[in-house]
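Could you help me review a protein record that somebody else here produced? My question to you is simply how this chain folds and whether the tokens agree. Thanks in advance; the entry in question is below:
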Amino acid sequence: MTVELRSVNGRFLDLGFRLPDEFRSLEPALRDLLTGAFRRGKIELRLNAKVEADTAWPNPQPEQMNRLSHLESTIQGWLPKAQPLSVHEVMQWCKGGTPSERLDEVALEAAKRCVAGLAEARAREGEKLVAVLMDRVKRLSELATQAEPLVPAVVQRLQQRFLERWQEALVATGAAQTISREALQERALNEAAAYSIRIDVAEELARLRAHTEEIARLLKAGGEVGKRLDFLIQELLREANTLGSKSSTLELTNISVEMKVLIEQLREQVQNLE
């Protein structure tokens, strides 16, 4: 009896079976066995049974011999000239009537051993993947730490540039001659404050750091964390995209690009986790 399991990555559990016709009745039990052991991945189970050749010697059972003897006596009672059964004829009858060995239990036991082997292999792979994921998460945290000191300086520099452009626009349009200086100053400060809020990425960095900390906690805790990590990876990518769209300096843009690369690597590897 040979049972083979093949597993590839997948967001959901997708099961496939390749069974001989005589083992089709085992599919529900095999499905329950797989769903009880795994939560994600595309898993295919193949079962092959090598049966004895047709030329193998049969093993006559007592009930078969009693039945043949009774039938022989009955027939000879009605037909006295009937020839008695030969050894060859008895063996032929017993060969056709010998109850085949029930291999369902053997197949299920082999499947359980195969499932246990696959679970152990995936556990070993998971330990290595956790190390890779933790390295990416650590690098994301370092990038967030690297970006945080840049934010106030970037906001202040862009705010000053905005005010300079504002003054240039006032001079070019001649608005300074028709509107009071106090009104222009107040309007300029309000516009500069609104602009600062639009380009400030402190909240995005704070959320990104919170997500990385939660990912690290889940990886250390273990268990079935794949789907939760999927959601957190999507949130990370959203924050990195917002950081890139708000970025007005080369430093923050480079950090955003590197974050996106790391998050994509995380997303690919998370598909391998339960």
Remarks:
- The first helix runs from residue 27 to 37.
- Residues 124-270 form a domain with the Butyryl-CoA Dehydrogenase, subunit A; domain 3 fold (CATH 1.20.140).
